[in-house]
């Protein structure tokens, strides 16, 4: 165990750039998959809401809390496989995710609530919570942490929480760069007749952000494991 003076640097900038490189080199496998999965989920939730209440917004939205974490977990696995140069069938990846389905769903919701509560109280506690819980999905998937996932994620990330906050802020900045133009395009004054194009861009933009968070979460987890267990991967150089 390193003390504060001996602890090696986390290298948040290098981790973030490694995530961007992986996302760029495997855009179709990651962003394309995220777009198709999120679109299918949106159609499913809308269909359920229409069937139950006759409106597009309704109880079908609850499906996003169930399937959203599973889609995110699949993106984390696809990030890991892309970095390793592996091409596993989707069915094999899905089986690995479903084996940890309930902890992924429940603990992802808990992590979101903890982070949101921290942001409502003060911004800094929310950022800290987001940082220490960002490795949650990889911890559950690769370490089979199950219901101990929150505690294991916190223990792994806590020594480097503030450098990870830096990565979270970088991702937030990228999110603003992507989302603000899309929001402006969707305004009635600017949408005009390009509704379909705006919808397509919004789907791709949202998918890119989800994929970025999944890739960055995996890269942060990988870097934390290296710092804990020893060794430095060339991917961060």
From TrEMBL:
Signal peptide per UniProt: none
Keyword Membrane in annotation: yes
Stretches that traverse the bilayer: 27-52, 58-77, 97-121, 127-147, 159-184, 196-221
Annotated keywords: Membrane, Transmembrane, Transmembrane helix
Name of the molecule in the record: Glycerophosphoryl diester phosphodiesterase membrane domain-containing protein
Species, as recorded: Halovulum marinum
